[in-house]
Design goal:
This protein has eight helices and 13 strands. It is α/β, with parallel strands linked by helices. The chain has one domain: Phosphatidylinositol (PI) phosphodiesterase (TIM Barrel, Alpha-Beta Barrel). It has an eight-stranded parallel β-barrel, surrounded by seven helices. Strands 4-5 form a two-stranded antiparallel ribbon. It has a two-stranded antiparallel ribbon with strand order 6-7. The longest helix is centred in the middle third of the chain and has 10 residues.
Amino acid sequence: MPTSRRGVERIGHRGAPREFPENSLPSFARALDLGADAIELDVHATADGVAVVHHDTSLARARGASKRELAMMTWQEAAKRELAPRVFLPSLEQVLTLVGARATVYVELKGKGVETAAIATIRASATRCAVHSFDHLAVARAARLAPEIRRGILFDAYPVDVARSMRDASALDVWPQWELIDRALVDRVHDAGGRVIAWTVNSASAAEQLVELGVDGLCGDDVRLFAIFR
């Protein structure tokens, strides 16, 4: 994966959500314009097997809110939903087309069976991609389906045995909530041949602290906070 000159990858969390609706094409375009090395996004699968980019299981927070689950909607139905005026729910394919060769795309797998749709879309694209999830079993299934795609595991609690979790999921990237990260965790991940990507980092001081600890990537809502690491 590409890195900045100081070796720390700068990742736009759902694009640039402080300026545009998160997980939208304008948000991702803005993150790229701001110099992000990568973007991170969430995917679900529609009823007809299209990987769509959205955080929640439904569009309850969209304009003309609908409590219907994305898994129960067709792509044709979902594509009509506005996140903001004239800003529509994107498919993963649309995002990968937008990004092209400009950056890496980190795809968080959400929802039952989404890995099949996500991997099919990734394989049809030339964009650099990796997948990750809180559902470590989904990551393990992704490893069996597409061993060539890099994989990561998310943590919102301190991992008891991170090396074992990496082995069990066939993952190399470890994504801990940034407040959980200490030198011992970084060292254990590195000793296991992996990388540590911190989320969601929204202050320059936290970023500096994490870089001193040896993290490999910073995922935040405004990549301008990481400009010092270019």
